[in-house]
Amino acid sequence: xxxxxxxxxxxxxxxxxxxxxxxxxxxxxxxxxxxxxxxxxxxxxxxxxxxxxxxxxxxxxxxxxxxxxxxxxxxxxxxxxxxxxxxxxxxxxxxxxxxxxxxxxxxxxxxxxxxxxxxxxxxxxxxxxxxxxxxxxxxxxxxxxxxxxxxxxxxxxxxxxxxxxxxxxxxxxxxxxxxxxxxxxxxxxxxxxxxxxxxxxxxxxxxxxxxxxxxxxxxxxxxxxxx
Length: 227
Description:
This protein is mainly α. Helix content is 69%, strand content 4%. It contains seven helices and two strands, in the order αββαααααα. The chain has helices spanning 24-43, 63-76, 78-104, 114-121, 125-150, 158-182, 188-223, and strands at residues 47-50, 53-56. It has a two-stranded antiparallel ribbon with strand order 1-2. Helix 1 (24-43) runs antiparallel to helix 2 (63-76), helix 2 (63-76) runs antiparallel to helix 3 and helix 2 (63-76) runs parallel beside helix 5.
């Protein structure tokens, strides 16, 4: 019988568990992550009705940031994922500030669309703050949980850790955003329905896209040098 700490007692080597240095592929993934985040923030200015359910337009795109965040964290580790997350946060804050300043600036000449601009991109500070806070906490938790889970489970558990990490990150994101954005502004029952609906939607998108996420993770790992 092997003693604790002996070679025979160690789990099989899995290169995917180790930190890979940033590469051109990771830079493309990070750029796509930030781009999707900015698109989601603008799309979120429109509400979409689907039967009794109401979503903001960002719900169509924002879950994809969790997919890319999963790929970055799983393949390259927490540091690379955190760099993309923080960059996305800074760019989102800069976009919000830019929209706010443009909205305040006087319209030039007889430009007729000032009210339309204000209606679509005139940002409510409370909503912006809630969105940024939820995004930052949710994405960092998603990446941290995924890497923690990856380093403590067998290689074949990729599907469970991708879905499990998103379940944790999306919960923090959704609860924090809904509480900060609408707490006290709507009834408790409405807030609860909105929160639960948003959370379940994000999990459903993650589950539907899970085969794609797994395929992308495996292909990126295969093309990147072993650390």
